[in-house]
């Protein structure tokens, strides 16, 4: 059953939106920040031979560089100042989350509330700078070596170029991290997610143009084109349904007495998302599987057995799909265990006198929550595997140019849902404020 806020949000109209001045300012700020990001993806890094870079990137587009280029909105292929994108920040965030489960001091900070969260965010920023420095230096060395193609990508290689590249790329990542935080605090939606979203959506028009060009040149039949459109709509519908799906565990609170009055116990629920891990499993699985292909492209004298492994783990191969599915399932369970701790949830319920009907508070409650979470994670892992393997199957078996992969489609839909939910929340708050002002005016008139 929908909550009161959801029912109110479903009845929102454009007149309510036009009166929400604060929300419009937030939306314009978000659009302006994303426009700045897109502009930065076209500013090239100094000292690069653009023609040689374009030829080199065409040979490595199927490796990790292709994945990073998708998340960076094409900045890697142009070697722009935002070529590193926001990925160092995401990696640092995941590393810090892992460390909070291992290091007791960080775990204690996590439980301190807002103060601890600010300290952990600061550690994440330090980790982002460190990772960006390492990755930027590695990119500078790879560009100087020609990335295995023999072309001179750097016009004037040397220590000065490396210093310039490290400062430029690291500064670009720090700026994007700051820009994402500004969007989160002063705009609408999660800033980091919206930056990745903008990078993926920016490549969507060219992908649609390539699809229509293939149809015009008779490389793609009309039936197959319509089938791709239907499959895209169906996959989007499945993603929306699953991302909104929840397993709600009923929580009851006993009667309590305050003074001479007895208050009746309340009933609430503990919502558990069907896909708790989000888009992290396919991103990690794709990155790991693309490493062999990238190493193979960079190295000219690899042993035959390594070349065979690299070929077996390339796109469209049966071993690639099996390992890809296995890695996604592993990261679904692994990341869910990191971000959600049943024992902490059970302790919080016991602290506030809440309990699950028929389950003893404490350890038994933690075991029950873990049991339910494991079951729904199985369903979530199957959903992630099907969504991400469907484009791979279409491209390898039917030779269909399905350019928008499952990972990118998953990111686009989930970020859109989260942003729309935040916009609805702002509109609901605006309507509540309007109702409160009207009630105050009415009460004031009655008092007169």
TrEMBL record:
Signal peptide: none annotated. The central subunit of the protein translocation channel SecYEG. Consists of two halves formed by TMs 1-5 and 6-10. These two domains form a lateral gate at the front which open onto the bilayer between TMs 2 and 7, and are clamped together by SecE at the back. The channel is closed by both a pore ring composed of hydrophobic SecY resides and a short helix (helix 2A) on the extracellular side of the membrane which forms a plug. The plug probably moves laterally to allow the channel to open. The ring and the pore may move independently. This is Protein translocase subunit SecY. Keywords: Cell membrane, Membrane, Protein transport, Translocation, Transmembrane, Transmembrane helix, Transport. Pfam families: SecY (PF00344). Belongs to the SecY/SEC61-alpha family. It comes from the Bacteria. GO terms for cellular component: plasma membrane. It is a multi-pass membrane protein. GO terms for biological process: intracellular protein transmembrane transport; protein targeting; protein transport by the Sec complex. The chain crosses the membrane at residues 27-45, 57-75, 123-143, 159-179, 191-211, 223-242, 279-299, 319-340, 372-394, 400-421. Component of the Sec protein translocase complex. Heterotrimer consisting of SecY, SecE and SecG subunits. The heterotrimers can form oligomers, although 1 heterotrimer is thought to be able to translocate proteins. Interacts with the ribosome. Interacts with SecDF, and other proteins may be involved. Interacts with SecA. PROSITE patterns: SECY_2. It is found in: Cell membrane; Membrane. The gene is secY. The keyword rRNA processing does not apply.
């Amino acid at each position: 059953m929908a909550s009161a806020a959801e029912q109110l949000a479903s009845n929102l109209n454009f007149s309510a939106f036009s009166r929400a001045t604060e929300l419009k300012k937030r939306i314009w700020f978000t659009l302006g920040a994303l426009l700045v990001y897109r502009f930065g993806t076209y500013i090239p890094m100094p000292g690069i031979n653009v023609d040689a870079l374009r030829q080199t990137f065409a040979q490595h587009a199927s490796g990790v560089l292709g994945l990073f280029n998708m998340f960076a909105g094409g900045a890697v292929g142009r070697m722009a100042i935002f070529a590193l994108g926001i990925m160092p920040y995401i990696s640092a965030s995941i590393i810090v989350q892992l460390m909070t489960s291992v290091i007791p001091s960080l775990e204690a900070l996590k439980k301190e509330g807002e103060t601890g969260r600010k300290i952990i965010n600061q550690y994440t920023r330090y980790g982002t700078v460190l990772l960006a420095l390492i990755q930027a230096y590695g990119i500078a060395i790879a560009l100087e070596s020609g990335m295995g193609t023999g072309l001179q990508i750097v016009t004037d290689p040397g220590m000065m170029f490396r210093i310039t590249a490290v400062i430029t790329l690291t500064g670009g990542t720090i700026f994007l991290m700051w820009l994402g935080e500004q969007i989160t605090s002063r705009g609408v939606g999660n800033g980091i997610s919206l930056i990745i979203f903008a990078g993926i959506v920016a490549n969507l028009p060219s992908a649609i143009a390539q699809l229509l060009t293939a149809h015009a040149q008779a490389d793609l039949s009309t039936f197959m084109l319509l089938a791709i459109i239907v499959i895209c709509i169906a996959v989007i519908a499945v993603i929306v349904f699953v991302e909104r799906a929840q397993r709600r565990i009923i929580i009851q609170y006993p009667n309590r007495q305050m003074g001479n009055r007895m208050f009746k116990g309340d009933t609430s629920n503990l919502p558990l998302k069907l896909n708790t891990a989000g888009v992290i499993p396919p991103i990690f699985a794709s990155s790991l599987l693309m490493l062999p292909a990238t190493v193979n492209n960079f190295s000219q004298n690899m042993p035959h057995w390594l070349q065979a492994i690299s070929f077996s783990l390339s796109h469209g191969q049966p071993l690639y799909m099996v390992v890809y599915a296995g890695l996604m399932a592993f990261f679904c369970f692994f990341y869910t265990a990191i971000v959600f701790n049943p024992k902490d949830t059970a302790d919080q319920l016991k602290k506030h006198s809440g309990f699950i009907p028929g389950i003893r508070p404490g350890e038994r409650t933690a075991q029950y929550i873990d049991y339910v979470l494991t079951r729904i994670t199985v369903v979530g892992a199957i959903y992630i595997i099907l969504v991400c393997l469907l484009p791979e199957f279409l491209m390898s078996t039917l030779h269909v140019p399905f350019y928008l992969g499952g990972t990118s489609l998953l990111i686009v839909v989930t970020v859109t849902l989260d942003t729309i939910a935040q916009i609805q929340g702002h509109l609901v708050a605006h309507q509540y404020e309007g109702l409160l002002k009207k009630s105050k005016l009415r009460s004031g008139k009655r008092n007169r």
